[in-house]
Amino acid sequence: MELKLKELEGGITEPMGFRATGVSGGLKDGGYKDIGLLVSRKPCTTACLFTKNKVKAAPVALDISRSDNLISAIIANSGNANCLTGTTGDNDALTMADRVEELLSFEKGSVMVASTGVIGRKLIMNRVNYGIDKICTLIKTENNYKNFSNAIMTTDKKMKNAAYEFELDGKTVRIGGTAKGAGMIKPVLEAPHATMLVFLTTDALISGDMLKLALKDAVDISFNRISVDNDTSTNDSVFLMANGIAENHLIDADGDNFKIFREALTKVCQSLARMIVKDGEGASKFINITINSAATVSDAEKAARAIGDSFLVKTAIFGQNPNWGRILAALGYSDAKFDLSQLTLRINDLVIYEKGDVNKANESLAAGELLSPEISITLDLAAGKKEYFLWTSDLTCDYVKINANYLS
Q1: pLDDT band at 118; cut points 50, 70, 90
Q2: pTM score, two decimals?
Q3: Which fold does the domain 6-278 belong to in CATH?
Q4: Backbone phi and psi for residue 207, each to the nearest 5 degrees, phi listed first
């Protein structure tokens, strides 16, 4: 079955039955919004993926313990990661969830928590509680995805929202997403396994097992394919809430409806993932690295990540310097199998290196190609039939300035 998608504007509030907004609780200087709340009219089947970093923030630990529960809301804060805060941090995360449950009359254990910001500082709970009280009153009358987006931002320059509508069994189904992330971006997510936070909503009727499978498949070719600065956050979280209000036939097995749902979910996730890379701290270039004709998928991934995480490659692209030797040097230490006398390297559509020889004419033209805000690096390893792609950004002077002054 062919998927026909209609793009929508409202992110997580587009699917039926979801509301979201954001307020200022005083965690950020200047009165910026720093408390966000996402609620569903009906308790949701939920799938979550969390960071593999062994240092996990308090809200991540709480959410993992609730990952099999029906979830009615997620309370989020920016300005403080609530990480490396000991027992106090654990209690504070639980207090945030308890307070929302009490104020909105939700079931115990039905609220998750997300935090982002500075690591190692305890939450100022009188401000958090003030913000929660304020937003739990406001959510009853206000539904504003932009306010939610603003409330979860840290070093982000732009809001990140995506939503699509499609048909299942003659029913209109929607999937929406809102994300934040600009730095400390090298997500390594597993189940139940500056930060990346992703909130996904759908009104589709789908079982928990199939929801988890769809999310894993979608994340594997979206958020797990991006890298800004080679740092995996302590707070990375992806939440997918499904309330079933669309009343399509229950998706409880693999089949056409599951494939359509997964494809639409992947589209939302990839849209948000690209936005995160483009908004990378100080970034001026979006870089698409593609490895073709590798012996194994593992080899292709090793090659792509070595190139994408290389500071020398990233700075060369920032400087519009077609230093292709840095790309091949990164390939050389990647541990991927290849034969230098057989591989082909392209920057955009220009063949720069082929079967042991550099194309001098194209090397001269490559500097002009690097003026573009989107760059492609393609390596054909001539070693097999496997492939892998990775999205990354360049490394600029602004990245250093931002992070020299950001406490974490």
Answers
A1: confident
A2: 0.91
A3: L-amino peptidase D-ALA esterase/amidase (3.60.70)
A4: -70, 160
The two three-digit tokens of residue 154, written as one number: 């840290």
Residue 390 has pLDDT above 70, yes or no: yes
CA 229 from centroid of its chain's CA atoms = 14
Q: Quick check: helix, strand or coil at residue 84? A: coil
- List the structure tokens of 40: 């569903």
Distance CA 299, CA 37 (A): 42
CA distance 225 to 227: 7
Say how far apart CA 236 and CA 199 lie, in whole Å.
11
Contact residues for 250 (Cβ-Cβ < 8 A; gap 6+): 205, 206, 207
304-354 residue pLDDT tens: 999 999 999 999 999 999 999 999 999 999 999 999 999 999 999 999 999
Specify the pLDDT at position 55. Answer: 87
385: CB partners within 8 A, 6+ apart? 293
Residues marked active site are found at: 195
Q: Say if CB 21 and CB 37 are below 8 A apart.
A: yes
pLDDT for res 187 = 54
Fold of domain 286-404: Ubiquitin-like (UB roll) (3.10.20)
Burial of 124 (C-beta count, 10 Å sphere; 0-12/13-18/19+):
middle
Say how far residue 304 (Cα) sits from the centre of its chain.
Answer: 19
Domain boundaries, the chain: 6-278, 286-404
Residue 272's closest CA among 145, 184, 353, 180? 180
CB atoms within 10 A of CB 337: 15
Q: Which of 301, 220, 227, 235 lies closest to 265 in space, CA to CA?
A: 220
| 232-284 pLDDT per residue, tens | 678 889 999 999 999 999 999 999 999 999 999 999 999 999 999 988 777 88
Q: For 231-245, write each residue's pLDDT tens digit.
A: 567 888 999 999 999
Residues above pLDDT 90, as percent of the chain: 81
Q: Are 27 and 34 in contact (CB under 8 A)?
A: yes
Strand, coil or helix: 113: strand
Alpha helices in 279-388 (DSSP H): 297-308, 311-318, 324-332, 360-369
* Local structure of residue 249 (DSSP, 8 states): P
